[in-house]
Task: inverse folding
C-alpha cells in the first residue's frame, strides 16, 4: 500500500500596506537604522492600521489569496488550523473567525499557540490529518498582529515585530513529495525569558496590570538569543543527519525570521550558503507564526517539484522544531 504524504500544493499571503521603517521608528524610541540593522537585520515592518481589524483580518486575506491561486472551492476545505498568539479574542478561536470570513462552511477549525514555532507545530498537526486518510484539503495558516502587543516605548522589543499572515494548502500525495520527517520540542523552563505576563488566568487584566505594561511582550534578549542559536541549528542538523542529507542536497532552508544573526548561525551549522536560505526579515520583521509561510509566499516562484526544503523555528515556551519536506509542485 502506497504511503500517503501531506504535500503543500499552494501558498497565499498578505501583509498590510502601512510600512513602519527604521527612520520612523527612531522618532518613537531611542534607536537608529544602523543599530537595528547591525543587531537584528530588519529595515522595515508592516503594521495593520485599519480600525476595527485584527489578526483574523490578516488571516482571512491570506486564505482568500490561497483559495484564488489554487482554484479551491471554500466548501471543499475540511479543516483550517490557525497558528497565532494574537487572537482576536480569547474565544472563539481566530481560525473560526477566518473560516466564517472566507466561507469555509464545511470545515472545522482551531488555533495553535506556540508563538514563533506556531506554524511548524500547526503544519505537523495538519500533516497528521492528511496522513490519516480521512482528510483531503487542510489549510494551515500563520497569522499575527504583533503590533497589538508591542510596547513602542521599549527599544528592546519594538524594532523586532511586524504584522502579517500566510497560509498553505495541504493535500494527499502518493509520490515521494510532501512532508517527510519532523522533530518538535519544548522546554517550559524558558517561559520566564519570553512571555506576556498579564491577560491570562494567572494574572487577569486589571488597572494595575495595564498601568504596569504587563500586556506587552517581555523578552530577555540575550538569554533568548543564546538558546535560539543553539536549538535552531541543532534541530536542523539533526533532521539532515536523520534523513541522510548533505548541504548539497538542500534547495532551501526556511528559518523563522527573528534575527539575522540567528539565521546566519543556523546556515553555518548546516554548511549551506546564503543562496540556499529564504530571507525576508529585512522587509517584514518578525511576524511570529507568519514568518515561515511568508517566506514560501515570497519564494514560491523559485521552488520546483522535488526540491528538498528544511523548515526550522524557535519561539517562546521555549519551543522549537524542524520539518523536512519535498516540494510538491512546479512554479505556476
Result:
Amino acid at each position: 500500500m502506497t504511503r500517503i504524504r501531506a504535500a503543500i500544493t499552494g501558498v497565499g499571503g498578505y501583509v498590510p500596506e502601512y510600512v513602519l521603517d527604521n527612520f520612523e521608528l527612531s522618532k518613537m524610541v531611542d534607536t537608529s537604522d544602523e543599530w537595528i540593522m547591525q543587531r537584528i537585520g530588519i529595515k522595515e515592518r508592516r503594521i495593520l492600521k485599519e480600525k476595527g481589524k485584527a489578526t483574523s483580518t490578516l488571516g482571512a486575506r491570506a486564505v482568500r489569496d490561497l483559495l484564488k491561486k489554487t482554484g479551491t472551492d471554500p466548501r471543499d476545505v475540511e479543516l483550517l488550523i490557525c497558528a497565532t498568539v494574537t487572537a482576536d479574542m480569547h474565544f472563539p478561536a481566530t481560525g473560526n473567525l477566518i473560516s466564517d470570513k472566507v466561507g469555509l462552511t464545511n470545515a472545522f477549525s482551531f488555533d495553535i499557540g506556540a508563538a514563533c514555532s506556531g506554524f511548524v507545530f500547526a503544519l505537523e498537526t495538519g500533516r497528521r490529518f492528511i496522513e490519516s486518510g480521512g482528510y483531503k484539503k487542510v489549510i494551515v495558516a500563520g497569522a499575527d498582529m504583533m503590533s497589538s502587543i508591542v510596547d513602542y516605548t521599549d527599544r528592546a522589543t519594538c524594532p523586532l515585530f511586524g504584522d502579517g499572515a500566510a497560509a498553505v494548502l495541504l493535500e494527499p500525495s502518493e509520490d515521494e513529495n510532501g512532508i517527510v520527517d519532523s522533530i518538535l520540542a519544548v522546554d517550559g523552563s524558558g517561559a520566564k525569558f519570553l512571555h506576556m505576563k498579564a491577560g491570562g488566568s494567572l494574572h487577569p487584566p486589571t488597572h494595575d496590570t495595564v498601568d504596569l505594561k504587563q500586556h506587552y511582550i517581555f523578552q530577555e534578549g540575550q538569554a533568548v538569543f543564546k538558546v535560539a542559536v543553539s536549538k535552531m541549528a541543532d534541530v536542523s542538523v539533526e533532521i539532515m543527519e536523520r534523513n541522510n542529507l548533505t548541504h548539497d542536497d538542500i534547495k532551501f532552508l526556511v528559518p523563522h525570521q527573528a534575527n539575522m544573526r540567528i539565521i546566519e548561525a543556523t546556515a553555518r551549522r548546516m554548511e549551506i550558503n546564503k543562496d540556499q536560505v529564504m530571507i525576508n526579515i529585512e522587509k517584514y520583521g518578525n511576524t511570529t507564526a507568519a514568518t515561515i509561510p511568508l517566506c514560501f509566499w515570497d519564494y514560491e516562484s523559485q521552488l520546483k517539484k522535488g526540491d528538498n526544503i528544511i523548515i526550522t523555528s524557535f519561539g517562546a515556551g521555549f519551543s522549537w522544531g524542524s520539518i523536512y519536506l519535498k516540494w510538491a509542485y512546479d512554479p505556476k
